[in-house]
Amino acid sequence: MELLDVFAVVVEQASLNKASQLLNLSQPALSRKIMKLEEELGVELFIRKGKRLELTKVGQICYDHALELRHLERKFKQAIQTYKAEGHHVSMTIGASLTTLQATLPDLITDYLKDHPLTEIKLLTGKTHEVVTMVKEKKVDIGIVASLINASGLHCEPLFDDHLCLVLPLGHPYIDRPHIAIRDLNELPMILFSKGTWYRVLMDELFHRFSIFPNVQMEIDSFEAIIRLVSTCKTATLLPQSYLREDLIRNNDLILRDLVELEQTKRTTSLIYSEGTSENPAAMKFIEQATDYFTKHK
């Protein structure tokens, strides 16, 4: 590593004399180091033309590698400094529903770990009321739920709003309809979230309000499983807009249709935490970055 560093300085200074001054080495000592590196690699790194040094092709490869190692060493030292600054063990536990875990949390965690790569993050899953209980009982530092929570001793930070969309597989007879009304969902074969989940509560309230009785063929907790089965079974579903990324729609051959009534079924995804969370610096940083993330992506 040391010889590669010395070699990189010689390349950048384009002169043994200048490099020796920068490295605080005598010119003969510097020359010996370059020769030793050439002997170890079994190649000639420079073509010597009088006092000038010209890189050979393999010398250029060696220099590129030296720069890469220099960059990795810098990142390594930064990571160690971050570790020292944040303490010897930095961790937090997040509670979320399975669908939030699949759709919302990955982006938040990726964004957070860019700045805090040494943080250990643990995840627990549960329905909305279960996540609220986890936060109250301090089993998790932070909860992310598809609802606004107004409970004593808990703080609630709204992250974003979205609404339900009708999701159809290619070949579904409703795709070519110029207009789809809410009444068209009556007796429509559908795959829905399991009863008791927040999204299913939202859907059932919608169905009750408009006297809709869909033909529910499957009830599933997993958002990803619903996506795959809609495509496979050629059946409709209702899913939150925020979960429906373009690549997910494209890769599963799905079509989205908006209904006025569905656009009115807005819900808010929120981040909840207790008073005790303020004692966990990692969790407080996550809360700050999560709210900033959705402010930027609105």
TrEMBL record:
Query: Which Gene3D superfamilies does this UniProt record tie to the protein?
Result: 3.40.190.290, Winged helix-like DNA-binding domain superfamily/Winged helix DNA-binding domain
Q: Return the InterPro entries for the record.
A: LysR_HTH_N, LysR_subst-bd, WH-like_DNA-bd_sf, WH_DNA-bd_sf
Per the database record, which ranges form the HTH lysR-type domain?
1-56
Pfam families listed in its UniProt record: HTH_1, LysR_substrate
Q: Which UniProt keywords apply?
A: DNA-binding, Transcription, Transcription regulation
Q: What domain of life does the native source organism fall in?
A: Bacteria
DNA-binding is among the record's keywords = yes
Q: Which family does it belong to?
A: Belongs to the LysR transcriptional regulatory family.
* Name of the protein in question: LysR family transcriptional regulator
Q: What species is given as this protein's source?
A: Paenibacillus sedimenti
Q: What is the lineage of its organism?
A: Bacteria, Bacillati, Bacillota, Bacilli, Bacillales
